[in-house]
Structures are given as C-alpha cells and as structure tokens.
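Fold it.
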Amino acid sequence: MRYRLCALFTAIALSSAPCWAADTPSGDLAKAASPTTAASNQDVLKQLPFQDRADYDAARRGLVAAFEGEVKNAEGKPVWSSQRYDFLKQAQAPDTVNPSLWRQAQLNANAGLFEVTDKVYQIRGIDLANMTLIEGDDGLIVIDPLYVTETARAGLELYYQHRPRKPVVAVIYSHSHADHFGGVRGVVDEADVKAGKVRIYAPHGFMEHAIQENVLAGTAMFRRGMYQSGSTVAKGERGQVDTGIGKGVPVGGSISLIAPTDLIVQPLESHDIAGVQVEFQLTPGTEAPAEMNLYLPQLQALCMAENAVMSMHNVLTPRGAEVRDAKAWSQFIDDSLVRYGDKAKVMFAQHNWPTWGADGIRTLLADQRDMYAFLNNRTLHLLNQGLTPLEIADAIKTLPGELAHKWYARGYYGTLSFNSRAVYQRYLGFYDGNPANLDPLPPQQAGKRYVQALGGADKVLTLMRTAMEQGDYRWATQLGNHLVFAEPDNQAAREAQADALEQLGYRSESAIWRNIYLTGAHELRKVGIPQGGRAIADLVRAATPAMFMDVLAVRMDSDKAQGHDMTLNWNFDDLDQHFALTLRNGVLTWREHASHPQADATVTMSKAALDLISLRQLDFPTAIKQGDIRIEGDAQRFKSMLGMLASFQPTFNIVTP
C-alpha cells in the first residue's frame, strides 16, 4: 500500500524528463552500413540541392560567442556537452547517416549566443530548444527558458558575459511543451514573480495543457519518448546525431515550472513589456494545444514559436499526443503571413535558426502554409477515394512542386508518411474500414501463426536474410517482428531484426525515425531497459486535485475491483475542495464539489501532503500517524481500494513481447 500511493502521481512526474544515464555505450554493438544502405544514401546527394550553402551562413550569422563546453548539475554530472557532437565537424556524411539529415545535424550543432537583430539575442545549441532574450528599457524579456534549469542558467550567464547585466523582468512561454518552460527557475526566482518584479506571460490554457498532456498517458508517453529522442543510444556516426529541431534532450537536469501571471486570451493582444511592444497571436491547436506567435513592431521581428521551424513538423508526434490540426496550422501560418509578411525584417523560432529579409520570410511562411494544407487536403482527397492509412502513406511520396526541394520542408522531424496517417486518424480514427482489421490478433499470437505458416523459425530467418541482402529492410523487419514476437528468446532472430532496423535508421532522413529504429536495435541486442522517471516537483504541485482523481481512475485495476463496490469522500481542507468517489462495477468515477451522504470512508488531507506523497517525500502510514491524513469511517475499505491500484513503470517492452 505504501508504494502504491507513492506511485499514484508518477505519470505527472514522468512528463518528458529522462533520468537514466545518457550515451549508453552502444557504439560497440552498432554495425556498418550495408552496401545497399551506402548506395541509398549516396543517391540522396543527387536528389537535393546540396550546393546551396545559404543555411550554413544563416545558422552562424550573428554569432557573439560560441559554446563548446559542458553544463553540469548540482552533483557535478554533465547535463549537456556540445563536445559529444564534435563528430559532425567532418564535412562529408558517413555511409551510416542520410546526407540530408547529416546536413541538418551540422546546422543544429552551432551552439552559443547569437544576435538576431538589434536588442534580440538567442541561445542556441545547448538544449533541445532556443532561448530568446529581448533587451527592454529596464530589463530582459526571456522567451522560452529551455528544458532544464541548468542549461537556462548557463545560457543566461553566457549572455551576461557579453551584454549588460540587466535583470530578467519578464518571461514568455510560447507554448505548453516542457522544453519551452522547464528551465524557468534557472533565469528567475519565484519570489520575484510573487512580488511582482517579474511577469510571466503564457497562452490561454497553458497550465492545463502543460500538465495534463503527460498525466493520463504519461508512462507510455515517457517510454515512447525514449525511442523518439534516442536518449539511450550513443551519439555518433552510428548513433544519435540530432532530433531535426535541435541536438537532443538534456539528461539529468531539473525541470521546473512557475505559473504564469498573465494569460493571453484574445486572438490578438498587445502589451508593453519593459518598453518593448509585443503583439501576441494565439494559435491554439497547432503545434501545441496552447501556443502563440509574437511580433515586435519596434524591432520588426516576428517569432513563430514552434509553428514554423526549419523542418516539417509532426501532426502527431511518435511519442504520443493529441492529433494536431494541420488545417488550422496552415491557416494560422497564413494569418501570420498576411498580418506580418510586409512588416517583418527578421523571423525567428524557438528551434533552429532565423530567416532574414522580407522576401525570404514571406516565402518560408507561404511554403509551410502550403505544406500543412497539402498534408491535410491530400490525405482527405485520398481517403475519400477509399485509400487506407498505409495506402495513403505509400501514395504520398513527396511534397508537390517546389516544396519538394525546400530544405525547411524536409522531414527531419515530422514525415509525410507519419503525418498523412495522423490526418487520417484525426478525421476517421485508427480503423481503416477493412473488416479483417476490426479484431486482429495481438502481435504475439499473430507472430506464432505467421511463423508456423511460413514454415518455422529457420525458414523465416532465411527469408529475412534474403530480403536484407536485397536491401529490402522494410519487409525484413515485418518478417522479423513476427518471428521475435513468436520466439522472443530466439537470439538469432533478435540479432537479425536489430540489423534490419539499424539499416533503416541509417537511411532515415527523419532524425526521430533514425532514433526510433536505432533504439529498437539497441534494445534487441542488449537485454534490459534503462530505468527512468523522477518526480518533477513543480509539475506535481501545479497539478489539480481533479487531475489526481483522473489518475486514480486510470490506475484502478477493474479486474481486482470487481465485487468491491464502495463510496468514498475525499476532502482537501486547505483548498476547501471536496470529491465524491464511487467504485462500482470495477470502475472508479468521481464528482467534484460533492459528497456522499453516507460514505464508507472519508479521507481528509491537504494538497501539500498529497504533493509530498506524490514526490515520495512522505509515505501514507507516516502521514496518517502524524496527522497529515485523517480517515473517518471504515479505513480498511479505503486501504483495500489502494490495493486495487496498478503501478505503471516506463520499462515495458516495445520491440519484444
């Protein structure tokens, strides 16, 4: 019981914050590119305008000071090291990396303090995202203080080494993803926020989405995020090289959150912040449920948040999230083009590098508008002709017209294949309409039947190896998946599947597809999954009691709960919030601002005590003993309910049963 209650809020604590050791030494297990993979990557050099070096100049433009060292946490362990990407300094892409991705990885490796325009600076290349600093009359405005406090603090100190040491008087969260707010305590003190010395601006719905996106499906999202970021794969020519929108995720740092003081609620709002005019443009439902662009009219500078970066983005991220609205995304970019296209002289985003010049800005915005509109409209066009998700993904080979040759429309982060399926899911769901797919067998059962039908494990291995010799790695991995799920202890099958996945990774233009393939290969070759997940105190404290009740309901094991119907009242006396819980038919439901007239038990505690338990700084028996939790009625019924709660850990298998 003690463990179960301590683990109740782990989903919130997980968020996207890895705490395992980075750069697991997998390089010694990785193999060379096959001849067909090397040839495939060489063909890319003939298909794209690699002679265009303009982005190399743009990514280095305005460099004030390079960052080439490490960022360490309080224990002295590296959170970030730019030197781990020194292998990218070689000009020519190795056979094990798609040349287009190698180019993007080199561009994102430019790390340091950059001047964007007068009074606007960026810290780039020391975290997944960028931190933008705007010099106001009496202090600094910080847009998106990175992922962890350590990199944010290091970035601010790098700025102070070269610019006047003005205090931070305002922070702007452009949207609700952790890499854009998690480092806030590295740049401001919450006491100054509470005293009114620092204002924090965020889009409407920010707190709800910043917490809730990772709560109910947090454990699974965290585990899948390990694949997407490639955090357990060594950095190098045969490992992780980039994420497409930045180098990677800092490891071992502290994620924080300070609640906004000012929410932007109107579609367009203008504010004077430290003498700087800021026009906010809300863009809900685009790259994040709560997001906004910014325009600085005095500086003729446009910030597109994460709505227009130097890559095709994800309509549905592989780690998991709500499907985004490609149609709305396109329309909001067009709104920005109409409103600011004739005004802005520089455009920057919170990933990658800026664009200078009105013509270039207008072209990029128009191209990315067209890109997301194409993804939406073409998918709908094909699904209305009866094509299924996989058929649509196979049919959409490239973007139309000149978009196919624009570097900032390449699939370094999102891909045509994944995004078209995401659009399909948004409109029609995951079912493709074929009755054979209404109730398919789960992978392990199907795998055993496929292997038997194909003539046994040895025969499947032979088919796999033949496919790999022919460079048909997609087919090889489909065969291998059936075999591994049928016989998970078959080491030859695991090795063959790892080899096939690895070659697909080497060919991938998408950084996160590469990371996913290579992480799968790594886990097939090495038994054991890295542990992860630690409590993020600010997110736990910011979570509402209602979110806690949702977590309880998700964690209730309905099989165990059958025949144990009960009613409970749960009161948070410090917030004067009351909840009526009903366990019936193995299902836990709750009502806020309500109480059962004759509950089996009534639990009274403070939200602060719940936070300590969720952070594992207090256990349930101790809390009762010292009076932090009071139970009236049948305490045993409440304890039995806790015993019916499942504990989720982000160590479940993905590439094996």
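The first strand starts at residue 63 and ends at 66.
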